[in-house]
Design brief:
This is holo-[acyl-carrier-protein] synthase. The protein has ten helices and eleven strands. By secondary structure, the protein is an alpha+beta fold. It has a single domain, classed as Ribosomal Protein L22, Chain A, CATH 3.90.470. The strands form three sheets. Strands 6-10-9-8-7 form a five-stranded antiparallel β-sheet, with helices on both faces. It starts with a helix and ends with a helix.
Length: 284
């Protein structure tokens, strides 16, 4: 089914990858030269690993799904920083993907028709302040409804987790539409039934053009996926899509399809995938 639909949900646990400097450089050398400076600018090793694996995931996914030879893959970015594939595949006119990395995980999600946004959060306890003080720093990004749900969640640990659930969903939506950091998160309000049947209100109006999924990757990591209508993309990102006009029946069918679980990949599998592609180029 994955091969036919172009839908992917991939996840890599970077804590399981402990490369030597030579191994790290060999993995980075698989990427186009213009991608490497963005990796090298990070000082901390974990940040460099996340940056490298996120790019390996993007190129591996495009190669795996669309069967595009490695040397023909051209991943660009909008002015807001949203990655997109130039010269899209005719079989999947709106093929798009979104990457997220925080804590122990790097993930990617793709869709052939609808916009897709992925966000991963690591639930970390505040340092030097209480949970209430910590979430108060973000109160301007939350609606009154969301704030009340958060502070009434129970123990400080439950309050913190509740906050990160809302935050994760908001970020997934913003990333899906390709908006920049200036997008007003307070414009978004989420409703749910025990974190299922999640719906979004945008500027006070409920939207039927979006679906959301929230999952626990482990005890301290959450992931959310947003899937919605291409017409909601910001203008710079909408220009990269081939078909921003989707008929209602097709949209409804796509949104109602169940969202698959993440497939776990190792960094070794990603590098092997790209390495095989490069080997094929050299032998052709």
């Amino acid at each position: 089914m994955e091969e036919e639909t172009g839908v992917r949900r991939w996840l890599v646990d970077i804590t399981r990858w402990c490369p030597s400097p030579a191994q790290f450089d060999a993995a980075a050398a698989l990427l186009p030269s213009h991608e490497r400076p963005a990796i090298a600018r990070f000082v901390k090793e974990d940040d460099r690993k996340r940056a490298l694996v996120s790019r390996l995931l993007q190129y591996s996914l495009v190669h795996h799904v669309l069967r595009i030879p490695f040397h023909q893959i051209n991943i660009c970015r909008t002015p807001e920083g949203k990655p997109y594939l130039q010269k899209n595949c005719s079989n999947f006119p709106n093929f798009n993907f979104n990457i997220s990395h925080q804590g122990d995980y790097v993930g990617i999600a793709s869709e052939p028709l609808c916009l897709v946004g992925l966000d991963i959060v690591s639930i970390s306890k505040p340092q030097g302040e209480t949970t209430t003080e910590f979430i108060s720093n973000f109160s301007s990004y939350l609606t009154d409804h969301e704030w009340n749900c958060i502070v009434r969640a129970g123990t400080p640990s439950e309050v913190l987790t509740e906050f990160y659930r809302y935050w994760c969903l908001k970020e997934a939506f913003v990333k899906a539409i390709g908006a920049g950091v200036g997008f007003g998160l307070h414009r978004l309000e989420f409703h749910h039934e025990h974190w299922t049947d999640i719906s979004i209100h945008i500027d006070g109006e409920v939207s039927r053009k979006w679906r959301f999924w929230l999952s626990e990757l482990d005890e301290v990591h959450l992931a959310s996926i947003a899937k919605g209508h291409p017409e909601d993309a910001v203008s710079s990102y909408k220009k990269t899509l081939s078909n921003a006009t989707v008929v209602e029946e097709q949209l409804h069918s796509t949104l109602e399809s169940p969202d698959g679980a993440f497939t776990l990949w190792t960094v070794e599998q990603l590098t092997q995938s790209l390495g095989n592609s490069l080997t094929g180029i050299k032998h052709s």
